[in-house]
Design brief:
With about 375 residues, this protein is of the alpha/beta class. It has nine helices and 13 strands. It folds into two domains: about 80 residues, Aldehyde oxidase/xanthine dehydrogenase, molybdopterin binding domain (Aldehyde Oxidoreductase, domain 4); about 260 residues, Aldehyde oxidase/xanthine dehydrogenase, molybdopterin binding domain (Aldehyde Oxidoreductase, domain 4). It has a four-stranded mixed sheet with strand order 3-2-1-4, covered by helices on one side. A four-stranded mixed sheet has the order 8-9-10-13. Strands 5-6-7 form a three-stranded mixed sheet, with helices on one face. α1 runs parallel beside α2 and α5 packs parallel to α9.
Length: about 375
C-alpha cells in the first residue's frame, strides 16, 4: 500500500540509504553505481516495508533518490512517489496464455496431459524453468505428459509478483483439471484423488479440505438468499501443498461474491502456526483481489488506472470467512509466504462453473 520511496544522503565520498527494499545488497550496489563509489562506501538501513510482494525487489526508485542526492551538496534527499506515479511506473504481472489437452481411456481415466504456455518473464531466456513452475511439477500422476513454454518479449515492463509463475500455472492447471473431471463425468475431488496414488502428501491435503468444507453436502444459501456452490483447487509450491475450497454466489449484477474459503496447508513442520495462518489468509485475500478486481489496461502505451477508485483492492467487507487448517508434520519446514496465493483463483473459477455451468478461462474473473 505504501508508494515507492527512499532516502539517500551522499556526503564525504560515502552514502547512507534508508529504504524499504526486498534486496538490500542489490540496493547498495545500485546506489554505489549511481554515485560512482565503491559498494563498501554505501550503508543501507532497511526500513519497515509497507507491502513488498515483489515490487520492492526492483531498484528504480532507489536509483532515483541516489541520483538526486548526488547533486544535493550532502543534504539527505527523500523521494516519495504519488499513488498515480506508482501505478503508472510499476513492473507488472506478466501476461500469460496456456493451451491444454487431455486424453482419456475407455474407462474415463486420464492417461495423457499436454500443457503449452507462452508469456513474458524478467528472467527469460536464462530461466525458462521458472516460467513453468507449477505446470511441469503438478504432483499428479499423468501416465504421459508434455509441458512446453515459449518465452515472449513484451514492451510492458514485467516484474516479480507474489507467488511468481505458480500464480498463473495454478490457474491454468487446476482449471483444466476441473474441466477434465467434468468431461469424464466425475466428481472434482474424486477425479483429483485418482491421480494422486503416488503422492500421499497431496492426497492428505485434498481429503482434509474435502472433509472440512463438507464437500458433497448441500451448500448454505448466501446471506441474500442466492444460490451458492463450491469449487476446489489443489496446488504445490515452494515445497508446500495447499488446497482451497471456495463457496461463491452471484449478486443481481452477476458479480462474483466469495463467502467462505477453506484452506488446508502442509508446509512441513509448522514452526509458527499463527504466522502460517496469517500468511495463508493474507495470501488468499491478495489472490482474491487479483482474481476478482485486479486489472491493468493500457492504451497507446499508457496505464489507464491511477488510484484505488479504478483499481480497487478487496475491501474488508468483501473478504470471505477464511478457515485455515495446518496438516501436522515432522518434515522439514517449507515455504509459506507466497503459498496462499495461487490456488484461490482456480477454486473460485471452479465454483462459478459449479454454480452456472460457465467456464471462466481468463483473469480477472468476469461473467458475461
Amino acid at each position: 500500500m505504501e508508494p515507492m520511496n527512499g532516502t539517500v544522503q551522499f556526503k564525504d565520498g560515502g552514502a547512507k540509504v534508508w529504504v524499504g527494499t526486498q534486496f538490500p545488497g542489490f540496493a547498495r550496489d545500485a546506489v554505489a553505481k549511481v554515485l560512482g563509489v565503491k559498494a563498501d562506501r554505501v550503508e543501507v538501513t532497511v526500513t519497515t516495508l509497507g507491502g513488498g510482494f515483489g515490487r520492492r525487489a526492483h531498484l528504480d526508485f532507489v536509483r532515483q533518490a541516489a541520483a538526486i542526492a548526488r547533486e544535493a551538496d550532502g543534504a539527505p534527499v527523500q523521494t516519495m512517489w504519488s499513488r498515480e506515479e506508482d501505478m503508472a511506473h510499476d513492473y507488472f504481472r506478466p501476461a500469460f496464455v496456456s493451451r491444454h489437452k487431455a486424453g482419456f481411456d475407455a474407462q474415463g481415466k486420464l492417461v495423457a496431459w499436454q500443457a503449452t504456455s507462452a508469456g513474458s518473464s524478467m528472467g527469460a531466456p536464462s530461466f525458462i524453468d521458472g516460467s513453468v513452475k507449477g505446470a511441469f511439477d503438478t504432483g499428479y500422476d499423468f501416465p504421459a505428459a508434455r509441458v512446453a513454454h515459449q518465452s515472449v518479449d513484451s514492451l510492458v515492463p514485467v516484474g516479480i509478483w507474489r507467488s511468481v509463475a505458480y500464480s498463473h500455472n495454478a490457474f491454468f492447471t487446476e482449471s483444466f483439471i476441473d474441466e477434465s473431471a467434468a468431461a469424464a463425468g466425475q466428481d472434482p475431488v474424486a477425479f483429483r484423488a485418482s491421480l494422486l496414488g503416488r503422492n500421499p502428501r497431496m492426497m492428505r491435503v485434498l481429503r482434509r479440505a474435502a472433509e472440512l468444507s463438507k464437500w458433497g453436502q448441500p451448500v448454505d444459501a448466501a446471506p441474500d438468499g442466492a444460490k451458492t456452490a463450491r469449487g476446489i483447487a489443489l496446488h504445490r509450491c515452494f515445497g508446500s501443498v495447499v488446497a482451497n475450497v471456495a463457496e461463491v454466489s452471484l449478486d443481481k449484477d452477476n458479480k462474483i461474491l466469495v463467502h467462505r474459503v477453506v484452506c488446508v496447508v502442509d508446509c512441513g513442520f509448522p514452526v509458527n502456526p499463527n504466522l502460517i495462518r496469517q500468511q495463508i489468509e493474507g495470501g488468499v485475500v491478495f489472490g482474491l483481489s487479483a482474481a476478482l478486481q485486479g486489472e491493468i489496461t493500457l492504451e497507446k502505451g499508457q496505464v489507464q488506472q491511477s488510484n484505488f477508485h479504478n483499481y480497487a483492492p478487496l475491501r474488508m467487507n468483501q473478504c470471505p470467512a477464511i478457515e485455515t487448517d495446518i496438516i501436522p508434520s515432522t518434515d522439514h519446514p517449507q515455504g509459506i509466504g507466497e503459498t496462499g496465493v495461487p490456488a484461490i483463483a482456480p477454486a473460485v473459477a471452479n465454483a462459478v462453473f459449479a454454480l452456472t455451468g460457465q467456464r471462466l478461462r481468463s483473469l480477472p474473473l468476469k461473467l458475461a
